[in-house]
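Please decode residue identities from the backbone states below.
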């Protein structure tokens, strides 16, 4: 094969062409205006062409030249996009897409130092050696390329461009501490996304720039940054290639990158290329590291600041004259070494890898019968793998395309079928999905955009170019929208910008309390408290509060005025101790020394201050006093009563402190000490003396019960404790009993008018009604001083079976199965079984206290009805009773569960003395007057003679009371002995 360098000018030929085709190398660091100089020089000629390293940069320069020369005179040629007017005089291209067959007056290649790049370098080297303008040729790049350019093209004229501004190192900083107008550089999409997300949360948002973005998406993102809508840019090393933006600081989030084969540290020249984006024209720039990036050595920092780098040693080269006579000849021509100092044969690229895989396919091999077919195969193999898929998958797609083009029916002049192409693109023409999905579709459509720009591969290339461009635009717009939604808080960015500029903000508060600043929702005014948008975190929350402060001041003052004049009906109290106005909390209650008057603490920010705050405080305190006085009127009246004296006053005080309910056993001694006049004083104020509780029935209604629970919870909570956090739900209004929550604190159920009995909590007025049903049965001695459970009892408390049994056990009753004679029908007439009214004589309640609480009575309880000795005698004589029952005729008797009060014994279980005293029931029958408690009761007179009771006790010779259990025992004994009547 002939010398591969024979096509390059050499010797005298180069000397003769040197003047006519002067080559100028403009070298220097970034921010030296090299690209700007080349574009200006190109537009000074009649025709021109410039090759740029990125499609993004090509589009940027194209837009600039179009503004100056008009769209009819400017062409854009990249692998994926072609805008080629017939009258075009200026060609803006990517380096790979430069049409070298077109002759132009001026030609330039940017970033010529990329000739050393292992993947793309051979293309830049080819342009360095072959691409020329008739009048002027300009190579732009870094000083690192000077030595090799001078070696390869000795006639080159060099121009050094110093940097307009200084670049200095600032060290390591947290991402959240980076200055505004910073670019954070990372080397993976995941890292870019993570950093952008963090900046959105902390600083309002960031624009995102990556090489994989389409020009449309990239331009839209850069516009957000350039306009000041966001102050941060997160990018890959794509920003190092001539993208001109107003960046003041570059922060490296990593100093390593994956180059397609391995992770490696960035070279000093690569770091400098990116860091050089900081500083614009005469503005100095800074660079540093952030996150987990390693800090460069002092030597590296110094070299970056002074722009001193190791020169490139070799440029990559590939033979431009290929032999298509056979596949093996093509392979050999691609592998020819340069044979010239300063050049190295390029490594195997994606195109050569795809070619090697395609020729292994039998169908492909069958088509390779001519140089034309082999050349067509090489063209297909050069389709870029934008999708970054597996090499085998990419080769499979290219094989399919090649076989379409080499369709035997067209003699190798085939085209890609449009229906197949439509199916491939149809799967991509969707704008749903997240950022990664859209980016993947965009990468796929770039492949088809490249294919569509091969005019000889399609029947209607113009249609498919337009179609793929439209799909790419839609995907680009959708991707920009997703990037903006995810990484930019437009509201915070806008407000930060306006606040920095000290501009007046348009603020408003709508009817729902939403605060709008410049039309953006920043939060809500709930009562007097500003609640920022919950999505705002960190710096965003501070910005929102600052922005909303202008609107808050006037609105809060207006609300304070309206509250101070609002009627009481507009204010309410929640079950959790919060005072509500217009549906929002304006204050919360705290416990105080006065259970009926808790402290009022305003729920308001600093915006409510001065006289307005004092007025609101005074108004709410006054409302609370009125509210408590209305809802708990009986309790307040009891507290303020002047007609209650003595011991009754103490009981009233205890009732107020306990919010209207006391367990009777806890006040047994005091209650027994009350005379009828004192009891009357309390009854007049709504106090009821029940068998189990002393309470105020009016407070059992839902509204008073809820308020009592609120006040009780506040009174028991500590200063820093949430009074309601650990409380169970109160019983639903209308229920007479509920399952008792074992975790409920002591006093919880009593406060709402319930009492825990066994496994259930029962409303105290229902317990009293149950007691009203039990007392007459016990008094009638139908079941030997006991009673049986009736449906009426269970219906009162809404439970039955074991739950009701547990309830009775909780009240101090115990059950025993006995054989008894059921009462006759006439003995259980309704009028006879009708319970006494709850408000009956005080004797009723005293009897209940004696019989049901299990407390031992003393003789001075003159009002008690049911004599405890009767029950105890029945227990003591139970053996005799059972013995008699065994001999009794079984006819008419049944086994029944009998419930009796369980009595506790003092003195180690000794039996109660004075069993033979006359039953107190007889006093009621004879109408005897009770002796005042100030006098000496019979039991008190007997108490002093107790030591002699045993020796003074008389034999049971006198006839017992016919209603006493002793009389019943005597009758049974006579029957057994055959002497009964």
């Amino acid at each position: 094969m002939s010398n591969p360098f024979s096509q390059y000018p050499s010797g005298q030929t180069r000397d003769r062409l040197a003047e006519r085709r002067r080559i100028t190398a403009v070298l220097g660091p970034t921010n030296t205006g090299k690209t700007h100089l080349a574009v200006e020089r190109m537009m000074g000629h009649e025709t021109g062409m410039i090759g740029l390293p990125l499609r993004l940069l090509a589009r940027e320069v194209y837009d600039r030249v179009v503004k100056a020369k008009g769209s009819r005179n400017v062409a854009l040629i990249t692998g994926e996009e072609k805008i080629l007017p017939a009258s075009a005089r200026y060609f803006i291209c990517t380096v790979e897409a430069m049409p070298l067959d077109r002759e132009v007056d001026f030609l330039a290649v940017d970033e010529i130092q990329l000739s050393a790049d292992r993947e793309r370098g051979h293309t830049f080297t080819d342009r360095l050696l072959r691409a020329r303008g008739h009048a002027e040729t300009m190579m732009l790049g870094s000083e690192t390329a000077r030595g090799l350019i001078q070696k390869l093209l000795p006639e080159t004229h060099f121009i050094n461009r110093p940097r307009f501004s200084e670049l200095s190192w600032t060290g390591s900083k947290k991402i959240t501490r980076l200055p505004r107008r910073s670019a954070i550089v990372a080397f993976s999409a995941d890292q870019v996304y993570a950093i952008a997300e963090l900046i959105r949360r902390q600083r309002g948002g960031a624009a995102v720039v990556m090489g994989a973005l389409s020009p449309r998406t990239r331009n839209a993102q850069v516009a957000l940054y350039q306009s000041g809508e966001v102050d941060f840019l997160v990018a890959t090393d794509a920003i190092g290639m001539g993208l001109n933006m107003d960046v003041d600081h570059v922060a490296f989030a990593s100093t390593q990158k994956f180059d397609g084969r391995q992770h490696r540290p960035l070279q000093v020249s690569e770091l400098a290329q990116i860091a050089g984006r900081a500083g614009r024209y005469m503005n100095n720039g800074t660079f540093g590291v952030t996150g987990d990036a390693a800090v460069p050595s002092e030597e590296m920092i110094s070299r970056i600041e002074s722009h001193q780098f190791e020169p490139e040693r070799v440029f990559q080269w590939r033979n431009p004259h290929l032999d298509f006579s056979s596949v093996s000849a093509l392979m050999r021509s691609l592998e020819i070494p340069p044979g010239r100092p300063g050049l190295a044969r390029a490594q195997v690229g994606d195109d050569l890898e795809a070619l090697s895989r395609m020729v292994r396919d039998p169908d492909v091999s069958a088509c390779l019968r001519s140089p034309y077919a082999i050349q067509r195969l090489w063209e297909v193999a050069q389709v870029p793998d934008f999708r970054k898929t597996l090499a085998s998958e990419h080769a499979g797609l290219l094989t399919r395309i090649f076989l379409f083009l080499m369709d035997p029916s067209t003699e190798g002049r085939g085209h890609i079928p449009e229906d197949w192409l439509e199916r491939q693109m149809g799967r991509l023409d969707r704008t749903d999905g997240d950022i990664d999905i859209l980016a993947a579709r965009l990468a796929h459509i770039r492949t088809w955009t490249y294919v569509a720009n091969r005019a000889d591969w399609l029947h209607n290339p113009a249609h498919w170019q337009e179609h793929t461009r439209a799909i790419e635009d839609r995907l680009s717009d959708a991707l920009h929208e997703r990037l903006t939604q995810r990484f930019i808080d437009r509201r915070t960015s806008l407000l930060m910008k306006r606040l920095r500029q000290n501009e007046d903000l348009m603020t408003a508060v709508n009817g729902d309390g939403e605060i709008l600043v410049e039309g953006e929702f920043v939060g809500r005014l709930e009562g007097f408290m500003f609640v920022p948008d919950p999505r705002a975190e960190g710096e965003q929350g501070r910005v929102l509060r600052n922005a909303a402060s202008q609107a808050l001041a006037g609105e809060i003052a207006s609300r304070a005025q309206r509250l101070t004049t609002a009627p009481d009906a507009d204010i309410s109290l929640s079950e959790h101790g919060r005072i509500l106005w217009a549906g929002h909390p304006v204050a919360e209650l705290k416990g105080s020394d006065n259970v009926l008057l808790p402290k009022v603490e305003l729920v308001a920010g600093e915006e409510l201050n001065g006289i307005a705050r004092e007025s609101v405080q005074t108004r709410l305190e006054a409302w609370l006093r009125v509210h408590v006085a209305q809802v708990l009127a009986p309790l307040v009246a009891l507290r303020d009563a002047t007609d209650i004296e003595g011991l009754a006053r103490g009981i009233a005080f205890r009732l107020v402190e306990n919010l209207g309910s006391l367990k009777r056993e806890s006040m047994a001694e005091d209650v027994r000490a009350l005379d009828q006049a004192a009891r009357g004083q309390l009854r007049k104020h709504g106090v009821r003396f029940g068998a189990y509780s002393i309470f105020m029935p009016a407070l059992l209604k839902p509204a008073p019960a809820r308020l009592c629970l609120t006040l009780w919870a506040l009174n028991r909570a500590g200063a820093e404790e949430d009074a309601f956090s650990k409380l169970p739900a109160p019983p639903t209004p209308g229920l007479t009993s509920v399952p008792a929550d074992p975790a409920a604190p002591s006093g919880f159920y009593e406060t709402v008018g319930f009492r825990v009995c066994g496994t259930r909590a029962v409303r105290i007025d229902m317990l009293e009604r149950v007691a009203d049903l039990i007392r007459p049965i016990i008094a009638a001695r139908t079941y030997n001083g006991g009673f049986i459970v009736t449906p009426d009892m269970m219906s009162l408390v809404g439970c039955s079976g074991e739950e009701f049994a547990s309830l009775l056990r909780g009240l101090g009753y115990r059950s025993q199965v006995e054989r008894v004679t059921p009462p006759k029908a006439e003995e259980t007439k309704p009028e006879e079984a009708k319970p006494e009214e709850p408000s009956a004589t005080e004797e009723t309640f005293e009897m209940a206290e004696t019989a049901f609480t299990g407390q031992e009575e003393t003789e001075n309880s003159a009002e008690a009805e049911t004599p405890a000795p009767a029950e105890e005698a029945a227990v003591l004589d139970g053996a005799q009773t059972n013995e008699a029952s065994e001999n009794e005729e079984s006819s008419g008797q049944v086994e029944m569960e009998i419930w009796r009060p369980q009595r506790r014994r003092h003195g180690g279980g000794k039996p109660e003395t004075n069993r033979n005293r006359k039953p107190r029931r007889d006093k009621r029958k004879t109408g005897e007057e009770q002796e005042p408690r100030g006098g000496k009761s019979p039991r008190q007179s007997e108490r002093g003679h107790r030591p002699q009771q045993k020796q003074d006790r008389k034999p049971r010779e006198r006839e017992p009371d016919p209603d006493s259990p002793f009389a019943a025992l005597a009758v049974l004994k006579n029957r057994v002995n055959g002497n009964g009547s």
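Observation: Residues 461-487 form the longest helix (27 residues).
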